[in-house]
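Need the bound structure for adenosine-5'-diphosphate, inputs here:
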Amino acid sequence: MSKVTEETVRQVLSKVVEPNSRQDIVSAGMLSGLAVRDGHVTFAVEVDPKRGSEMEPLRKAAEKAVEAMPDVLSVTAVLTAQRQAGANPDGATRGPAAESPQGAQKGGMAPGVKYIVAVASGKGGVGKSTSATNLALALSTLGVRVGILDADIYGPSQPRMMGISGRPSSTDGKILKPMENYGVKCMSMGFLVAEDTPMIWRGPMVQSALQQMLRDVAWGELDVLIVDMPPGTGDAQLTMAQQVPLAGAVIISTPQDIALLDAKKGLNMFRKVDVPVLGIVENMSYFCCPNCGHQSHIFSHGGARKEAEKFGIDFLGEIPLDIEIRETSDGGQPIVVSRPDSPHASVYRDIASAIWSKLEAREGRGRAAPRIVMQ
Ligand code: ADP
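Answer from helper R.:
Posting the output first, comments after.
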């Protein structure tokens, strides 16, 4: 049992003084979201959005002070600012998170990673995480070195879908070693916070958490890091997309019109921040009868393809609604690894291969397609 508690962390932080007010951050009411779990400490320092960048030394000092405590295994300290009421999505460039100190230093994040690719959706429940996981694993079977970063901080799914439990370790108390399963590295807030702990983090904290998970995790050399984005197209997602050096984004959509409207918002969001949209994937595209194999197009099938055409964006493929996809992903053995010879696994592999080719083509290296390893 670790001896670190919220109280002992609070005591240590009450010695960290904000130079302007000369008050310590605890009595100044700047400390929020403090959570301690098995020696892993996370907290936020609330600052005036206008002074965000000046506050980085204070964040560092707070982090250092807690790191120095015996029994502390890792510290994640983020700067946060009250979200300005009524800020429009465009305001993200001027909003609090844009002042986050690391915002401009894209280069410092995950330097050994060749392509960071966001998997996004206009709304929740469309199968974004399921697709992100299966695509990451499919890329891996194509011989690509892959990691998956669960940025869906409000509802992390990757520990469950990747079948990973436990806590990441750290040799120096600063940099976390990513977890790993099926040859794919994985990091998620879900490893640091108990599953039943409600996520009370606000937009700006989410944005810096993603930066920290890129910067403070030993991702090593990877070809692709898939980022499972939080669903939606609000300020938090927009700023995340802006502050992380994304090579491209893949939009997951269901065929329903409503979802397509949301998917359009997703497209516009990435366009706004100049991140190339690699394409749209239609998930739960048609229903595959497990008994006779008959395909029923329950929803208006083909909508995503049409939309993609209209927008001049590539359509990457259709994934059926299939109980096996649900059971295997939710059971931590995604279909790409548990039933590699199923037609569904092959759909994921085709999409993954299209994504890889597009990344390489954009890079203009004309590198040969990776070796295909069939299991
Ligand atoms: P999101 O990340 O968009 O919120 P999830 O990936 O968590 O969505 O998926 C929501 C639920 O739908 C999960 O239970 C998942 O297993 C299931 N699901 C996702 N895609 C499919 C599919 N193609 N066929 C059947 N079930 C699916």
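Comments: The longest strand covers residues 277-288. The chain has two domains: 6-88, 109-361.
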